[in-house]
Automatic annotation (TrEMBL):
Bilayer topology term: Multi-pass membrane protein
PANTHER family, sorted: DELTA(14)-STEROL REDUCTASE, DELTA(14)-STEROL REDUCTASE TM7SF2
Family: Belongs to the ERG4/ERG24 family.
Transmembrane region(s): 28-47, 101-119, 140-160, 172-193, 270-288, 308-325, 337-358, 443-463
Record-level Gene Ontology MF annotations: Delta14-sterol reductase activity
A cellular component term, taken from the record's GO annotations: endoplasmic reticulum membrane
Keywords tagged on the record: Lipid biosynthesis, Lipid metabolism, Membrane, NADP, Oxidoreductase, Steroid biosynthesis, Steroid metabolism, Sterol biosynthesis, Sterol metabolism, Transmembrane, Transmembrane helix
One GO term of the biological process aspect: ergosterol biosynthetic process
InterPro entries the UniProt entry points to: ERG24_DHCR-like, Sterol_reductase_CS
Keyword presence, Oxidoreductase: yes
Pfam families assigned: ERG4_ERG24
Name under which the protein is recorded: Delta(14)-sterol reductase
Amino acid sequence: MAPKKASSSASTPAQTEKPHGYEFGGPIGALFISFGLPIACYAFAFLCNDVSGCPAPSLLSPTKLFTPPILSSQAGWQHALDVLKVEVGWPGFSGLLSLEAMVGTLAWYGLSLLLYVLLPAKEVEGTELRSGGKLMYRMNSFSSALVILGICAAGTWALGPDFQVWTFINRNYLQLMTANLLISFALATYVYVRSFEVKPGNKELRELAAGGHSGNMLYDWFIGRELNPRVTIPLLNTEVDIKAFMELRPGLLGWIILDLAFMAHQYKSYGYITDSILIVTVFQALYVMDALYNEPAILTTIDLTNDGFGLMLAFGDLVWVPFIYSLQARYLSIHPVILGPLYVTIVLGLQGLGYYIFRQSNSQKNAFRTNPNDPSVAHLKYIETASGSRLLTSGWWGTARHINYLGDWLMGWSYCLPTLAAGYKIVPSVLTPGTRLVTTEGMAGAAIPITYFYMLYFAVLLIHREMRDEEKCSRKYGKDWERYCQIVRWRIIPGIY
């Protein structure tokens, strides 16, 4: 059942790309991202919480954290820290991980792997490697997702919000984040150490990423030293492309599973599902299922063709995507926002526009790369580079060099707008002792930096990715790329950027 490697003799070996310079700020940037972003994940989890509110009340008036007599003393800082610990529900360092959460996380990865092996799959040939030859990929992530979502649907039908998967996630949210964080660090270390086995001309078609063997240990561990690390699973006798597997399966589908768990939490707490959380969950599920359905398209992305697999991708796939991208649903599970017909129409229109641009542009690019003579793309204009590649200068890709990023970003807006623009506080109920109420009194605008973080972050991410794409293409095509940029002037937003 192991995916076979395509014969390297069937195609002319591509030119080997020379190692290029540092990205992401080099070793210093790698250090900051590797250990700074995990802290950011915990910050979002604690500062927007179901103990005191979103954001934690003291953060709206930081001066109140300190008592005047000890304003600048060590005792003052300790007092402030103690107050914050109470407000955010700090469980102590030992409470950040539990055996239950670790076992559950490993079971999730095991289920994903089992479905990868057992379900029927399509064998798809990847793009040509720089050293020549092509790898084969086993693809069945969409059917795997349908099986998992079907199980969750059946469990919810039978047990409602008390279905064990939903209660397990909501009970162990922090601990699940920690478990995935540890797995991402362990995985990055494993592939880094194993990358030193790669030898030129090996029969397994293993090669190093052009930007991943700088010689700096920290940077190479972060950026990814090996381009396409693979491992054969004992007993199952199945080879798994680690990067492709992690890119689409545990984390991406996990994002939607978290959303659904938060929806169940809202229903259990309030007895109804709001239009806002429904919109967010459906839109994000559409985005994920679309990616899984069009799984072969991943083979032409920069992640697969250019980036090595290190902590950058491991952490991004397994921690950042599921736990940060589901922030809006988690917020709405505690603070139920009802939008009404007008807001729903606006958000639906924005999502529809973004999805149309994203899907149509990517489909056009993939069709042209797969078969330039296909009737749907045969009429498009292009320039041919010295390397033999063709660059589209009409259609979607004649309007902007990265027009798909515009659609991606517009969809990001539709994930954030349903949260509107107010934070919430959780206060004891006067009418029913022992219970709590969620209120927005005095919180107008307080949650904007939190629930709109995805949209702001995604803008930075896409612009940075666009800059990396431009640099890569400039190295690859040289003067032909300069000529292409003169024809297609705009980068992402036609007429603006």
